[in-house]
Amino acid sequence: MTNDELPGFSTRALHAGQEADPATGAVVTPIYQVSTYKQDGVGALRTGLGTGYEYSRSGNPTRTSLEVQFAALEQADGAWAFASGLAAEDAVLRALLVPGDHVVFPNDAYGGTYRLVKKVFEPWGVEHTPVDLGDLDAVRAAVRPGSTRLVWLETPTNPLLTIGDIAAIAEIAHAAGALLVVDNTFASPYLQTPLLLGADLVVHSTTKYAGGHSDVVGGVVAVRDGDDGRGGTLSARIAFHQNAMGAVPGAFDSWLVQRGLKTLAVRMERHCDNAERVVDFLTSHPRVTQVLYPGLPEFRNHDVAARQMRRFGGMVSFRTAGVEDALAVCGRTELFTLGESLGGVESLVEHPGRMTHASVAGSLLEVPDDLVRLSVGIEDADDLIADLAQALG
Length: 393
Ligand SMILES: *Cc1c(COP(=O)(O)O)cnc(C)c1O
Fold this sequence. Notes:
Elements: H1 9-15, H2 61-74, E1 78-82, H3 85-96, E2 102-106, H4 111-121, E3 127-131, H5 136-142, E4 148-154, H6 166-175, E5 179-183, H7 188-191, E6 201-205, E7 219-223, H8 234-245, H9 251-262, H10 264-283, E8 288-292, H11 302-308, E9 315-320, H12 323-332, E10 337-338, E11 348-350, E12 371-375, H13 381-392
Parallel strand pairs: 2-3, 2-4, 4-5, 5-6, 10-11
Antiparallel strand pairs: 1-7, 6-7, 8-9, 9-12, 11-12
Helix pairs in contact: 1-2, 2-9, 3-4, 3-8, 10-13, 12-13
The structure holds pyridoxal-5'-phosphate.
């Protein structure tokens, strides 16, 4: 189905998977806080939203509602919700890899993704090659036809906002017999739909923009169905692992993410508006040595970002004269709260080198220590700029 044949993004966000509750007519999906379900005779399961319900690890109507909604937003054949973004990533890696397989991996990936691949999957016998996914020649050189099973792409990356060309990397991956996974957390499905550009799977930390209110931890895997290369389908494999490993979100967490998604489009527009204003301010500030934002024409792969993203997002990083300056800014902001995570309605500031990316210090993934990362929230832009102005001194 092409874009034009579908209802618009917000219509899907508000209606997919969200029929009124059949029992009461409640217009909002209820929080089905339950572990088990009455059977109408042995094995005769009730249906309702999706397939039969027998036990809430295997299926829960609130979770189904989120999964149907998310699949509609990513234009996926199916989506599966998890207890965190890393649980979603773990499910993809465990579902698709066996010892001896090789993974091509961003050299500035989210720190937790790197830790999972390096500390859990490497001892298990999975090899990985960190590569600059902003450089197609480097990606071509890193894939090993026959043994590379997955190319893992994060775009934009955290915290350097590197842009990888999803369509071009999908071609390289497929030509080598590998699948392409895209971590779409930073863009959100509103700004970017990797499955339409050739990716096979999408993962999200729904803790970030999808939930959007800094009140829930969660993850999702969305799949464009196809051959898993091992005698089954990708959908069946992810669905099987979700139940077999059991890292599922509870009903209330599922409900919070589902509610967050209803306002994703309006929130993202405002995040982008504010980020553009902040970028304008920072680029002309004498104490800022470099602004990293995919919307800047001089930013590497700006043209790719312009092609594959609706707008350029709410994450902005910038470099200062040195680590002291970076730490000082992080210590002085008042509206930008010093904290990890991102994508909530309130603005956050952090020092990646000592906070989110401390675990990759000394590795290939180390980030510059003069770097400050902003998650630009939906406050009034003038107030955010005034806060940065006073923090920069
Ligand atoms: C936060 C994050 C994750 C991990 O998600 P959790 O919900 O914290 O487990 C993965 N990828 C990116 C890009 C993230 O920002």
